[in-house]
Amino acid sequence: MARKKSKCVFCEIVAGRAPAFKVCEDELSLCLLDINPFAKGHCLVISKRHEPWWHDLSEKEVVSLFKLARKAANKIMKAYKPEFIGMYARGRRIPHTHIFLVPTVKDDLLDKYFNDLEKIQEHSTALSSLRDPKSMEEVARRLKNTK
Q: What is the pTM (predicted TM-score) of this model?
């Protein structure tokens, strides 16, 4: 039996078939409020073209995505005055490029989460081999030589 292809919620929003609280947009990207926010002003910036990973977008689309993210972040800063805007790109759970923009202040949920991640990053024995200078030299060489 063939699997039924599910509709992408972000494509439905871009097409105007699903509701969204839009913040701003341009020709290639759209910024909307996250429906499950971590904080007031938490936005998602999505590409208007369906593409799971941001690094697979065209250069023009990437420029649009990050310009709109900056524009939205400035709006969030002015409206809510957080310490900073946390930003990370996703595409795993909803396979459509989206950048999280989350207003963050000291000791809020995401600040604690990322502080804990940094502690793991710095002190994990499982990750210690990645910090080894010879390993880092090999990784840098491999990335530099990859076309």
A: 0.85
Q: Return the half-sphere exposure (C-beta side, CA atoms, 13 A cut-off) of residue 103.
A: 19
Beta-sheet strand order (sheet of 98-104): 22-25, 29-33, 43-47, 98-104, 84-90
Residue 119 CB neighbours (<10 A): 10
3-state SS assignment for residue 100: strand
Q: Are residues 25 and 70 in the same domain?
A: yes
**CATH number, position 87:** 3.30.428.10
Domain residue limits at 19: 9-105
Q: Which pLDDT tens digit goes with each residue over 82-99?
A: 999 999 887 778 999 999
**Amino acid code (one letter) for 114:** F
The span from the CA of 87 to the CA of 44, in Å, is 10
